[in-house]
């Protein structure tokens, strides 16, 4: 993905190789003077203007270099899908806006990352002209990159990129790319693909709670502000170990989720907003049941953002103790 360095270095090597070849032929010491080497044959495209421009211009650092000033929503740099854009933070107040267009409903992945040798730590805010999406991410914890995955409707999307710690300089460079994604694929801790179904709304109270059984996985959305998603589990007789595992922020959602487990009288048994196995933001809730009880699980997005970039995968285990 980091194609700017892949572009730059081979091109540089080519220039050096040509220069060295030129020196070698110039210093043909002791030999009769040779005629200069013939110029390279012209491109045979029939359109010499394009060939000349392509041959003489400096190589682009990436598919779509940023065009400053791009500090406002009115002056974005265009980012065609699947092409790599590149930019930098040369002054501390630099904000960079990029824009891409989606023509048909699809999942989209947006990645922004410090390119090779960069010390930048990027943060991303994404918006759409319709206002349906307004979601931000400040990186995957220690990593210098941000990945957002979301279901996009046809629209124009603006990606605002800034240096997370407002630092700037020649080494604060980054790349950004927006790609069409297939339906998302999730893996469990054993590396097995999780077989999921989409949540069915309304599920906003205990009466409409979605029943879950062992092995069920649901792809849920929090696309309305303060959306409450209720689920219910009927635990068979005998001791059982239950776990509810959320994958969201780690896999590209903008959501920060909290899980709450309630008994059949809607008394809270326990809640977990963090301390998941991998990230602070994606919770896992474990519960040891004596069996033969009805439980409810409430899934809430803590910031109540309410937009399509806020979603989660809920994976359920209800296993009889040995
Ligand atoms: Ca910039
Ligand atoms: Ca800028
Ligand atoms: Ca929902
Ligand atoms: Ca709901």
Explained architecture:
- The chain is mostly beta strands and 322 residues long.
- It folds into three domains: 1-59, no CATH class; 61-183, Jelly Rolls (Sandwich), CATH 2.60.120; 197-320, Jelly Rolls (Sandwich).
- 10% of the residues lie in helices and 40% in strands.
- The protein is built from two helices and 18 strands.
- It has helices spanning 3-26, 48-56, and strands at residues 64-65, 77-78, 85-88, 96-102, 106-114, 122-128, 134-137, 145-152, 155-163, 173-181, 197-198, 210-211, 217-221, 228-247, 257-262, 268-272, 284-301, 311-320.
- The strands form three sheets. Strands 11, 12, 13, 14, 15, 16, 17 and 18 form an eight-stranded mixed sheet that branches. It has a five-stranded mixed sheet with strand order 1-3-10-5-8, with no helix packed on it. The protein has a five-stranded mixed sheet with strand order 2-4-9-6-7, with no helix packed on it.
- Residues 1-35 and 41-54 have low confidence and may be disordered.
């Amino acid at each position: 993905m980091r194609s700017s360095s892949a572009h730059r270095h081979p091109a540089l090597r080519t220039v050096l190789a040509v220069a060295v070849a030129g020196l070698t032929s110039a210093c043909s010491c002791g030999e009769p003077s040779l005629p200069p080497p013939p110029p390279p044959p012209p491109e045979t495209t029939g359109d010499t203007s394009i060939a000349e421009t392509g041959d003489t211009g400096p190589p682009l650092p990436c598919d779509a270099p940023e065009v400053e000033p791009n500090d406002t929503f009115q002056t974005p740099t265009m980012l065609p899908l699947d092409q790599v854009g590149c930019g930098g933070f040369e002054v501390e107040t630099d904000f960079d806006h990029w824009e891409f267009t989606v023509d048909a409903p699809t999942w989209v992945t947006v990645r922004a990352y410090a390119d090779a040798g960069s010390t930048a730590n990027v943060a991303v805010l994404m918006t759409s002209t319709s206002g349906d999406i307004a979601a931000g991410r400040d990186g995957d914890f220690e990593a210098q990159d941000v990945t957002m995955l979301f279901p996009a409707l046809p629209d124009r999307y603006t990606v605002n990129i800034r240096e997370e710690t407002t630092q700037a300089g020649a080494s604060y460079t980054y790349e950004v790319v927006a790609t069409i994604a297939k339906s998302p694929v999730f893996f469990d801790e054993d590396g097995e693909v999780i077989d999921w179904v989409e949540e069915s709304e309304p599920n906003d109270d205990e009466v409409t709670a979605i029943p879950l059984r062992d092995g069920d996985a649901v792809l849920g959305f929090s696309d309305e502000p303060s959306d409450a998603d209720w689920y219910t589990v009927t635990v068979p007789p005998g001791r059982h170990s239950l776990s509810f595992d959320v994958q969201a922020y780690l896999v590209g959602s903008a959501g920060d989720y909290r899980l709450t487990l309630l008994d059949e009288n809607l008394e809270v048994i326990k809640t977990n907003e963090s301390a998941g196995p991998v990230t602070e933001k994606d919770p896992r809730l474990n519960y040891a049941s004596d069996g033969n009880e009805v439980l409810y699980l409430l899934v809430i997005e803590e910031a109540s953002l309410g937009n399509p970039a806020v979603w989660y995968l809920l994976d359920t285990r209800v296993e009889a103790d040995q």
